[in-house]
Amino acid sequence: MPRLYSLVILVVFLLSNSSAEAGKPKWVKKRPSDRSFYIGIGMAYKKETSGLDYAKKARADALKEMASEIEVNVSANSLMRQFEDNYNFRETFESEISTSAEENLTGYEVKTWENRREYWVLMKLNKDQYTRRKRLDLEMAKKKAASYLLEAREMTGRLQITAALGAYFKAIESLENHLKEDLTYRSIDGNINFGSDIMQDLRHLFSKISITPVNPNYKVSFSKTMEKPLKAMVEFYSSTGRKVPVRNFPVHYKFVQGEGLLQEKATSNPGGEVDSYIQKLESSLKKQQVEVAFDHTVLLREENIKSPLVKFFLPEETIPTAKFNIELQKSDAWLDASESVFGQPTGQKLFSNQLKSHLNETFFNFTQTSEKASYIIEVNANFKKGDIKEGNGYTVYLVFADLHISVTSAETKTEIFSETITGVKGMRPGSFDYALKEARQKLLERFEKGVYPQLEALNF
């Protein structure tokens, strides 16, 4: 009986497999060939993916294969011809064109077939329909780009510079999917070659735009909000030689030397003025620098901001920029330090001098007398001997450290900051002096991690 049952199961399995094989369409068994169609086939195993990811994978593979069949000849009047001497640009664009071809293919037929193990997708695209649709898409893109280009030139003539730049970038975006194709266009005003004409127009336009710092040199206290802005003038030199303020001009401020928090994005007002504030310096460099430059990202769709096409039309050397020199200005302070080591006041004050040096790099210039100081810094450091711990073949010495620091305004005599650190432990073999050295180091580390951030928050 068990043998008969097993035989029945085997027959059913063979019959089901035979039925599944018989039901396979011809295109699954053998790749079809049709001169009138581009064809792509994709297959995914169901067990190798989760959920319906197998269907997405099969469709993506079929689309990629179909797109790879489409040969695109590079026109002599295309943007790609202009990239021939720039391998990096060409390689990037070849990749983009391949991706774009897959994303923009439409009008294809889709067939699917599946069994318990496999999922198959067939895509077919009529070659004649594809050619007509692509020609129409190119003509529409050219018309749109020509419209924006002529609008940009008209805006430039009216001295509406930011609006002109916006129109130029829209013209560039219109050409994003047609980099290998002929980009010449015959308009009422004459022939246009978008690649060369837009680049020449932008270079000429940017050569007439200037960003000039109103005051290029600033002094800023560490961790203190800037009272005066980093102000610049954006102007355009008209054909008559007259300087015209540029309104709504987008710029980006950034540190090119040093580091700090500042208002990064800004737009010029009707008078061409644009400004930003340094909210806090985060670098202790004496000399720092902030750059303000034209911000093209404001005028682009988000998906095109990182497009290498923008870099082609907008090389860094053409972008209007200006720089501000920032000098770190520290507050004057007087240090009143007392330091005790193992119950005795010490004249060397090694730890206090380390702390003074650290504060001098960031917040304060220390004066020779308290009368010249804006702030009085009081430091009290105490290092005490602990136990001597002996074990099998070793002896360890312990030293404990405490610190109290306060900051007082010399003008108002008001204490504006106070903090205490206790229980810092140095532990070393050899002697108490070794343990003392470690206690100093650990106390300084505790100061940097715990007290320093609090001092940064104060407006010295």
UniProtKB/TrEMBL annotation:
Residues 1-22 form the signal peptide. InterPro entries: LPP20-like_dom. It comes from the Bacteria. It comes from Marinilabilia rubra. Keywords: Signal. This is Lipoprotein LPP20-like domain-containing protein. Residues 25-125 form the Lipoprotein LPP20-like domain. It holds the Pfam family LPP20.
